Amino acid sequence: KRQPFRSEYELVTFQGKRKWVLEIGQGVYDDQGEVEALEGIIFDISDRKDLEDHLVFLNEHDKLTGLYNREYLEEILKKEAGIRDGRKRALIGINLSMVEVLAANYGFQYAQNLINGAAKALSSHCADNCMLFQTYANRFVYYLKDYGDINELVAFSESLAETLEALFVTDRISGGIGILEIGEAEADLDADAILRRLLIASERSIAVSHKDFGITAYNNQLEAMVNREGAIRHALSAAAGKERGHELFLQYQPILDVQKGSVAGFEALARLRTDNLGLVMPMEFTPVAEKTKLVLPLGESVFIQAFAFLGKLGELGYDTLSVSVNVSAIQLLHPDFADGLIRMMGRMAVNPSNVLIEITESIFTSDYAAANRSIEKLRKTGIRVCIDDFGTGYSSLSRQKELHVDCLKIDKHFIDQLIGADPGRAITSDIISMAHKLGYFVVAEGVEHESQLSRLKEYGCDRIQGYLLARPLDEGDALAFIARQNESRPDEGNH
Ligand code: C2E
Ligand code: CA
Ligand code: CA
Questions:
Q1: What angle do CA 7, 11, 14 make, to 5 degrees?
Q2: What is the pLDDT of residues 308-361, one digit of tens each?
Q3: How far is the CA of 351 from the centre of ligand 3 (A)?
Q4: Which of 114, 230, 313, 407 makes the best surface tag, with the fewest CB within 10 Å?
Q5: Does 302 contact ligand 1 (Cβ within 6 A)?
Q6: Residue 270 CB less than 6 A away from ligand 1
Q7: Taking CA 481 as the corner, what is the angle to CA 478 and CA 484, rounded to the nearest 5 degrees?
Q8: Which residues does residue 256 pair with via DSSP β-bridges, in sequence order?
Q9: Quick check: 245 and 239 in contact, CB under 8 A?
Q10: DSSP state, 360?
């Protein structure tokens, strides 16, 4: 065809050096049109090749540890997706926890040195059929092929755990190991889905194992958990969009004023109900909501319903009763939270002094200067603020002073200790008297037994809440409860 040619190839020079060259040339033809010779030029392109190799290396490796990176693993998984050649393939993922905390406390370099150490130690476990990747600062993944069976993967994981435990003997680093076999069922999943499952397994290890490096193989049960979480996420977004068959509603649990002997108000507790899932409790759906942006519209819906309930109480003449609403840190830290709530109270003609909000101690791990600004704004209107689950989290009573609140809700854990022959008298009564000295009123939650109530009364606790008084009630039952209470105590009622 008489076309010029162009090709790149590697050669070995007379001195034995390897070089990459680019050859461009064309034929020289005789009168008959036959090729007589080739003429052209050969360039030494070794430098360009080096640079290209380097760029490929950078694209495929973590800059700091030199290990293959996530992009490269994804590329391989993408290339091999859908392949059913009978070869066994699996991923083993390792998550180091605490690394971020250490980085925050001791600096980036300190944390990076630990990660480099882990990268080096883990590299020694690589083999021809086993590649190591670093998929995130504190996450490593092995890609294994042609192994025997799951037992071999578990044994391999155990040897990884030993290596890491020996390495981190003096550091407070622990982690989780997850195993995912890429079998028939997984062959068509995309890289993202595969790596997410692997992460679920390794995070599960961190959550449930008591060892420094626990091991979890991904299985159908984890799969079911993940699916359920997906279903709940879907249900929450449908409920937020007021779709039929999905509902976020409130139950109300009465709170008793111990000294007066009358109901002081209710705590609003959210429930999710859908045609498919039935009733879902907040323990299960709030973490899902908080992982998504849904926590904001759902939180708003909770306030709207709680305020509507306050309206009904007011109409019935119970205008001194309060409603307590749980607010998550994400809501509280939203810049428009306080102003939005104030506007809503105006719109719905709510008296702020009938409103309490409950926040948890986890606020202390976030930006609590910002939390305080929100809280201050709300308290100026007359809203009262409670620290929920007091005693379970990060706070101490001295730190509590830094947050400006009105009330502590002592966690059920301390109330449980009031049962039996050797009640944990000291700590529970100390919390109550310290709280009083600091100017807070105290609510005890999870009160189930008469004996707990009488001890709490003795310690001067202000309010109690728990199954002893009533379980969380549907709105109609809550209104009936308060009416009954007032019938039996006519002269102390609210009207
Ligand atoms: P919480 O604020 O500590 O609420 C008290 C929980 O203890 C409620 O569980 C209540 O039903 C339960 N409880 C009350 N009395 C007793 C008792 O005597 N014994 C026992 N064993 N349990 C009792 P629930 O309703 O499942 O709520 C769980 C958590 O979900 C709440 O804990 C709260 O942190 C969160 N939550 C509930 N509603 C909302 C909401 O609207 N927004 C937000 N952000 N969180 C909510
Ligand atoms: Ca609460
Ligand atoms: Ca609580």
A1: 140
A2: 999 999 999 999 999 999 999 889 989 999 999 999 999 999 999 999 999 987
A3: 24
A4: 230
A5: yes
A6: yes
A7: 155
A8: 263, 464
A9: no
A10: E
